[in-house]
Amino acid sequence: QVQLVESGGGLVQPGGSLRLSCAASGFTFVSNTMNWYRQAPGKERELVASITSSGRFTAYADSVKGRFTISRDNAKNMVYLQMNSLKPEDTAVYYCNAPQGWGQGTQVTVSS
Fold first, then answer.
1. Please, which of 2, 54, 81, 93 could form a disulfide with 100 given CB 3.0 to 4.6 Å?
2. Are 5 and 23 in contact (CB under 8 A)?
3. For residues 39 and 28, what is the distance between their CA atoms, to the nearest angstrom?
4. Alpha-carbon distance 92 to 75, whole Å?
5. Do the Cβ atoms of 51 and 104 come closer than 8 Å?
6. Please, which residues bridge with residue 70 across strands?
7. Is there a contact between 96 and 26 (Cβ–Cβ < 8 Å)?
8. Which of 106, 109, 50, 101 is nearest to 79 (CA)?
9. Backbone phi, psi, residue 49, to 5°
10. Pair type for strands 10-12 and 106-110
11. CA-to-CA dists, residue 24 to 42, 92, 111, angstroms
12. Which spans in 28-100 are helix H?
């Protein structure tokens, strides 16, 4: 069955960095665009970043452009989200997403 397992979340101070990872299985990873979403308390889930199947093209929400970088390793069925210059408003549960389904999410908290 489809599995997307996120890791790497945690508590970080403003200005800090985190790297999220998502391990995918149960579908043809190399053929699919992959996405990272996030959902803050009381807010709708929003798309943060996307990467095409080859990794050649990426897209970002305006709020994270220049700070976050999405990447993938098709040999390992992994997708990553490098988050730099984190802000308190980046606090949310971050979800890995494929057309086939969702991960369980990983909490990112940015606070001093």
1. 2
2. yes
3. 26
4. 29
5. no
6. 81
7. no
8. 50
9. -160, 150
10. parallel
11. 28, 21, 30
12. none
> Left if phi > 0, otherwise alpha if psi is -120 to 50, otherwise beta: which for 94?
beta
Which single residue is written with the structure tokens 């994270």? 64
- Quick: pLDDT tens for 38-58: 999 999 999 999 999 999 999
What are the contacts of 90-93 at 24+ separation with CB within 8 A? Answer: 90/38, 90/64, 91/40, 92/38, 92/39, 92/40, 92/43, 93/38, 93/39, 93/40
Model confidence pLDDT, tens digit, residues 62-102: 999 999 999 999 999 999 999 999 999 999 999 999 998 99
Considering only CA atoms, which of 47, 51, 63 is closest in space to residue 110? 63
Sheet holding 68-73, edge to edge: 3-7, 18-25, 78-83, 68-73
Residue type, 28: T
Amino acid, res. 16:
G
